[in-house]
Amino acid sequence: MDRRNFLSNATMGAIALAATPTMRALGANDRIRIGLIGAGDRGMEDLAEALKQPNIECVAVADTYSRRRDLAKAKVPGIATYDDPMRLLERKDIDAVINATPMHLHAKYFIAALDAGKDLYSEKTMTWNIPQAVACRKAAKASRQVIQIGVQHESSGELVDAKNWIKAGYLGKVTMVESWISRNTPRGHGQWVRPVPADCSLENVNWKLFLDGRAEPRFDAFKYINWRLFWEFSGGNITENMVHQNAWITSALGLDLPLAASMVGGVFSEKDGRQVPDTFNVSLEYPELLVVWQSVFSNSRYGLGEHFLGSHGTIEHVSGSTDMVTGKTAAGISFIPEKANNPGVPAMTGESKGVNHMANWFECIRSRSQATNAPIDTGYRTAIAGHMANLAYRRKQRVTLEEAMKAPASDWL
Question: Which residues pair with 308 in a beta bridge?
């Protein structure tokens, strides 16, 4: 290429770059214009959190259900609404997008948002299966967009404390991490089972767009509202909750992908037609380390938490755990030394301050930094671990990383 052609191409590239909405120079006080894809409970919570941040404007919302579009309009008067998210992504006045669709649609709009030049906040779990996780990671690595995955614990002060204690060597050799989440609902009512509004009908729902190629003989309002209960749309409590704690644990310890996964359990709490289990135990195998996670939907005493079990001490991180003697609810993080190997180190309580996860995303958008608190690799790592666990449960056998990466498409339905 001669010098004239080189300069011409460079100029055209600069023009194209300047035309990309999220590539415009943003100062600390510049307004960021956002769109929301998926205006259900989680999406509206994300939107509310976004609008608490300075100089953020929501200009459009997309959802396949007219009721949710109307609720979004009532929340943010003057916004445009669409039943098809692709129409929202066509808009040139949107800098960034929050993707809070049902999980089976995450990957579709993840990649579409990047293709449209939008910065992206994508709810967990990043994808519905492993091939989608691979595709999203590839798209993200080829993109210059700023990506934050919705695992909010990655912005917590407790994670800072855990990393500091581990880096200082206070734990010694860690061979096991225990983790759990405990919930409860009144007997006869299953966790996540939500009432179906009277207007949830084929006339008010873009059912075909929601299905995204899945075969359903007729409109099913219960499945539409309660998609979390079914494998074709969800990964159950693995992808709803374990992903948060797995991200936290693996970030603290600097872990990559698990070597293998096992999972046992079933639908034990309520026989309400759900496919995904409500009671189970997961084992994730890492080199010389076992991470276990358990979930129960019929007892809430111990809330959620993690125990990092090291030769020189223990990190205890809990939230919502009820003391059996005092009845008080505990929350926070602490380090307890092991006297056999760490007699001179005192017990410690975490004091680090966290940051707002949404605010961290906007800060990175303004600085054009891709180093968000939960970047693409966090989304990829936690998605793979979760999908490995669900594969093990559905196959009723231990699944290695190699086996999971080669799983046929039929394993995901």
Answer: 177, 315
3-state secondary structure of 91: coil
- Going from the C-alpha of 356 to that of each of 53, 55, 350, the distances in angstroms are 9, 15, 18
Domain limits, the chain:
3-154+360-375, 156-354+383-412
Q: Which two tokens stand for residue 357?
A: 């996860």
pLDDT digits (tens, 9 = 90+) for 14-64: 333 333 444 555 666 689 999 999 999 999 999 999 999 999 999 999 999
297 — alpha (psi -120 to 50), left (phi > 0) or beta? Answer: alpha
pLDDT tens for each residue of 330-383: 679 999 999 999 888 999 999 999 999 999 999 999 999 999 999 999 999 999
DSSP 242: I
Going by C-alpha positions, the residue among 203, 264, 193, 237 that lies closest to residue 66 is 203
d(CA 300, CA 316): 18
Question: Do residues 265 and 281 make contact, with C-beta atoms less than 8 angstroms apart?
Answer: yes
Q: State the pTM of this model.
A: 0.91
pLDDT at 231: 96
One of 3.30.360.10, 3.10.129.10, 3.40.50.720, 3.20.10.10 is the CATH number of 156-354+383-412, namely 3.30.360.10
Question: Which of 301, 271, 267 has its CA nearest to residue 187?
Answer: 271
CATH of 3-154+360-375, one of 3.40.50.2300, 3.40.50.10490, 3.40.50.720, 3.50.50.60: 3.40.50.720
Of the candidates 223, 213, 287, the one whose C-alpha atom is nearest the C-alpha of residue 255 is 287
Tell me the two tokens of residue 179: 């983790």
- Amino acid 13: pLDDT: 39
DSSP states of 185-241: --TT--TT--PPPTT-STTTB-HHHHHTT---SS--HHHHHTGGGSTTT--HHIIII
Which pLDDT belongs to residue 341?
A: 93
Element (H, E) at 388: helix 376-395
Point out the residues of the chain with pLDDT beneath 50. 1-22
